[in-house]
Amino acid sequence: METMARKVWTLCVWLAGVTAAMEAGAASATTLAEDADTVCKGLVGGANAIKIDAATLQSPSQLAVAERGPTPSGRITPANPAFCKVLGHIEPVDPKAPPVKFEVNLPVEWNGRSVQYGGGGFNGVLITGLGLPPAYPFDRPSPLARGFVTYGTDSGHESKPGEPPQLFALNDEAFENFAHRAYKKVRDAAVVLMQSAYGKKPEKMYFMGSSEGGREGLTMAQRYPEDFDGIFARVPVINWVGLQHAGTRSGLVTMGEGWINPAQVKLVGDAVRAACDKADGSDDALVQDPVGCKAMFKVETLRCAAGKSGDQCLTDAQIKAIDTLHATYKFPFTLANGLDDYPGWGVSGEDTPPLGPTGGWMAWWLGAAPPAQPPAPNNGIAWIYGAGGIQYVFARDPKLDVTTYKVEDHKTRLLEVSSLMDSTDPDLSRFRARGGRLIMLEHMADYAQSPYAGIRYFESVERKLGKAETAEFARLYTAPGVDHVGSGAPANVDMLSALVDWVEKGTAPGDLEVTEQKVEAPSFAVTRAMPLCRWPAWPHYKSGPGTAAASFACAP
Questions:
Q1: Which pLDDT does position 2 carry in this prediction?
Q2: Does residue 202 contact residue 110 with C-beta atoms inside 8 Å?
Q3: Is 316 a catalytic residue?
Q4: Which of 351, 484, 540, 551 is catalytic?
Q5: Which of these is catalytic: 188, 229, 280, 446?
Q6: Is 446 part of the annotated catalytic residue set?
Q7: For the chain, how far is it from start to end, CA to CA, in angstroms?
Q8: pLDDT in tens, 84-103
Q9: Which residues of 91-169 form beta strands (DSSP E)?
């Protein structure tokens, strides 16, 4: 890692670049609203660390829906207004490290606000800020169309086809950018560009991220509490070190006889619904109380009779694999912020159909074939991420046989990574003091990361700051039956408006409503709606159609 002297020098270089760019931006008298084309083109160039490679005025565009996509929202390209598309990069200090690339979209008609979009996975792809933010209803105008400046980054590295997504982690600066620095740098660069384009800084700044982007949102609240007024963190990959190790452990027990085939996954999904579906009072094929269901469901009831096997029962090795998935992962030493474990996964949504990152066990845990070394494309994503993380991030040995890896042999590196990546600091007092607002959302049928990790973090904030004090600035919601990316049950809700109302009007959100929508323009018809309950409440059926939110009420 960098020495302290080098870190100070890096920060000084960065601040000098931002200061110079601010001064250059402040000298512009004409704004984007007055002469869009000239002002947009005039943004190209840069001072010191920040370089603007291209700035092009874009004409208004229409809504488009692709036939296929890895996620429901990923199929939608929203209509956007006239805007200046800015592509740039921030130079690295280490000549062997990649630059931090970014895109900033400056609408001609600006509402004085901005939204930074978080990334996903191990990043390495430029986040454009032109799509729908996390959980966003398909029929709502995009943030850019609503007048927000939007922006994102590749987090300081670019993934290339055929290369492991964790390869960048062998470089210290690239990994530190991925951990937290890139998002801060790009946020500051975006402020410079807004100052240059509009002649003033943004009045309010928001951050919206899901998965890795959710971790980034929590990281900004913890490390840079002055930077954002409102943050939405959906399914954050919190306790990152724990997640990578727990995901790898869950893969190791499915090597050989522990692997579970698709028919058996359906067997488990059916058994979970049979045990728990009616607990809320309705028969809607949705487990509303997954916490209670985890305590109620007993996988041992599916054990094969002596000498038997097949798709309609589970072997001892398969039951052991499922018990391992559900169990807490324990470290032999303490990581950042006093944590020494990672909570196990829950129940429900096991058989949500797989398509890329969409789906349940087959997408994230099991894949289409048992885990291989090195990880194969048809393996579960958790194995691809976790085993590669062990090799490139923790052991830093690309040829390591993951089955021989021992946590104790890499304690120093684990503590180092934990201090960089684990957004588990419960002390949000500075974020609260400056008026920041935080909304977290966990999907309870998520097998990419355990929703219980985010729940545990929120409860640690309540213990640290007090429940009443936490309620003044933070919310945690849980969505039953929803997978990591928003499939399986109602998952769409306009959290941007909820944040704006809370930050700017003082209207704190109560229980909300999530919808499930057809990916069919222009109506994007709602097929089902549910209450989105504040933790620890969950939806209880009252009366009426099971597809209507009004038929349910939130209660513990």
A1: 42
A2: no
A3: no
A4: 484
A5: 446
A6: yes
A7: 46
A8: 999 999 999 999 999 999 99
A9: 100-107, 113-117, 149-153
